[in-house]
């Protein structure tokens, strides 16, 4: 993976929409924000998108359709809690995403393969957000 792309992933803000309004920001190598901890509990979680596979920009219609398929896949598993989110880079990059509570690292890896993603975040409970690379 390109070193600049890796740095961009690490500098990005991973925003999760809060039910009460506003957002909590997850950052790589930092603990889960306090506002998200009650939602995560002692479960695994991930931050994932289907947008721009292999970090290559795609037309908006293709990205939206991939994101719809991802949401359908996630909703098919009733054990998952899926929250709207947005990945936002320092250079203006932004991708609609999901913060998924109850998803295992293996399941995230399978999604990465299916949706052609280079990277995603994962964590457990209030622990550190880790960048996972494919």
TrEMBL record:
A Pfam entry, by short name: DUF3293
InterPro entries recorded: DUF3293
Protein name according to UniProt: DUF3293 domain-containing protein
Classification lineage: Bacteria, Pseudomonadati, Pseudomonadota, Gammaproteobacteria, Lysobacterales
